[in-house]
Description:
The complex is a heterodimer. By secondary structure, chain A is mostly helical. Chain A contains 12 helices and 1 strand. Chain A is globular and about 65 Å long. Chain B has 9 helices and 9 strands. Chain B has a 6-stranded mixed sheet with strand order 5-6-7-3-8-9, sandwiched between helices. Adenosine-5'-triphosphate binds next to strand 2 and helix 3 of chain B.
Amino acid sequence: MDTHKERDYEFIIQPNKSWFYFDWKGLSYYRDLLFFIVKRDFYSKYKQAVLGPFWFIISPLATTLVFTVVFGNMIKIPTDGMPPVLFYLCGLLAWRYFVACLNGTSDTLVSNAHLFGKVYFPRLIPPIAVVISNFFSFILELIVFLVFIFYFKFFTLADSKIQPNFIIFLLPLLVIQIAILSMGIGLWISALTAKYRDLIFLMGFLTQLWMYATPVIYPASMVSQKWRIFIVVNPMSSVVEAFRYAFLGVGLLRVDYLLFSAVATLVIFLSGLLVFNKAEKTFIDTV
Amino acid sequence: MPKPIIQVEKLSKLYDLGVVGATTFRDSMERRILNLLGQPDKTRKIGLKHRTIALDDPQAGPDPNSIWALKDISFTVERGEILGIIGRNGAGKSTLLKILSRITEPTEGKAVIRGRVSSLLEIGTGFHPELTGRDNIYLNGCILGMRKLEIDSKFDEIVAFSGIEKFLDTPVKRYSSGMFVRLAFAVAAHLEPEILFIDEVLSVGDFDFQQKCLRKIGEVSKEGRTIIFVSHSMNAIETICSRGIILSQGRVVFEGSQLDAIRCYIASSTENKK
Ligand SMILES: Nc1ncnc2c1ncn2[C@@H]1O[C@H](COP(=O)(O)OP(=O)(O)OP(=O)(O)O)[C@@H](O)[C@H]1O
Ligand SMILES: [Mg+2]
């Protein structure tokens, strides 16, 4: 008779496990590892940066400054009547979190090849860690942004235009959406780069193009009806516009667009999980 | 009778030696376009001409340049046993451990594992040079499958075992290579899974430290832990294992007591030399 509680642990190793086999138990077992990887990532990023923790603040501000001078003052792209600084900071807040997560998760398999070849832990841990550690940078940028809103609202003439509203309560959902959307695409790219190593070189290009396709520099309200479809099919557009609506009270906020973007996000995320899960199992043989 | 803790049934692993495999998007597009144009596939031809594995090689796989790194491996390990695996370079020992520790999938066959596994295919996996010794103990411990609480409770022991107390809060990049190895071993030696896979990792430390580790492994096994131990050191196999398996060209060619396995292995290698 079995006196050991063996069955709790029994694990079967077999070729071609189903697409839908996920190591959920392992994911929960290795949560301490997740914590330490987040800590490591955050720490090493902050060590590497020239100005340490200030880098988290200076980098979005510098981008905002460039945008304000070039697109706001020189080219004079309208900003929905908002002070350009606030307009760009707000769009960048959402966009930068998205890009940071996308870049971090898209080379999961390749950059962790060394670890993955030597020890087993659920391969989803590193991409989840990326999303979490970037969340902390997001929070820092959010605080900077709030300081700017406060300044513009109470110390400038733009005060009456800036109207934060109850949509702010949607913010946690929007942030989660950015996280899983970027992770979904990152997992897709990860799985593809496992097979085609040169795809990673297209990443910079892809994120650049995507930013121009998203209302970060310009308001969605400026996009003519003819081109509106591109705003709708891009799940990030509705998120960026919802951010602006929540904090500033301007922007294109439509429930149908938001719903579409949420559904697209889910589809991308779930399919990303599946392809990544499949690619991960034998990826290490071809490194 | 309790079921064996590890049960391996006809496990096989096919490796592509990587002449044909598409590794870049460009390559694969090029090939596809050439195919469309009706031109013969250059890469495939190269693969056929430069067959690195002879057709009559016992390890030759179905495709040219594919190789059975493991073929129909079957064995069982009972709870508390220490199984030694010996074999020449390229026999498939590391491949076997990689499959059992879920790093890669087998091509055929099945293995059932009935317990919590940790594998030591390398020491210091995941050490980060910028982090201090203390942080690395936690990170590495978690990577190897320990929980934070478990590391907390063994922390002092680990530090004492490594003998680097003074440098605990120094970034690991400032360690000498020996200190690094010691710290990494100290973490690994305090793993307490039910099943432990060890691949040729003890050879890096100095002699004293090796002895210390072997003793520690011996102690661990008395507590009922199951170990599969791969080594080229017959001495180590003899002292800590209770059973031995010889792998040759991806197949099990001998299974028995560790002493018989060693004798058989040495006999076969001297025979080949003649
Ligand atoms: N990722 C891989 N792709 C292709 N072939 C591989 C791969 N990994 C291992 N092999 C092949 O599989 C065979 C077994 O290799 P393995 O590393 O298991 O040998 P080993 O018994 O551990 O040898 P050693 O004593 O040198 O460590 C070798 O012929 C090797 O060339
Ligand atoms: Mg080996």
